[in-house]
Specification:
107 residues, mainly alpha, 3 helices, extended
């Protein structure tokens, strides 16, 4: 009729102390992901083959829009993600926004 109960199956009882041998090991702290490293290497190689820094400079000088892209998009990627003031404090304590009437003339 059917299989006898328990045939072909193995019952494993749960245990709070049971873990795989290398559970929680993960990648060592500070090591880079191999895929990310390979991608960065490929991009650096392509940049050098396309003319490197000299070519990037020439491109930025070709058009004011290119220079705007360089300063607004490319260069900021080199800056630190977090900036702090003296002693680790904030850079600015207060920011004020002023509405300027475009039709008004300066005196």
């Amino acid at each position: 009729m059917g299989k006898p109960q328990g045939a072909g199956t193995k019952e494993v009882k749960p245990s709070a102390n049971r873990k795989p041998p290398r559970a929680g090991m993960g990648r060592p702290k500070g090591s880079l992901n191999k895929t990310t490293t390979a991608a960065k290497d490929a991009i650096a190689f392509a940049a050098e083959e396309l003319g490197g820094g000299k070519r990037l400079t020439d491109w930025a000088k070709e058009d004011p829009q290119n220079e705007r892209v360089f300063w607004g998009t490319i260069y900021p990627k080199l800056l630190p993600l977090q900036v702090s003031g003296e002693g680790g404090g904030p850079v600015a304590h207060r920011i004020e926004f002023v509405i300027v009437d475009a039709g008004a003339q300066a005196v």
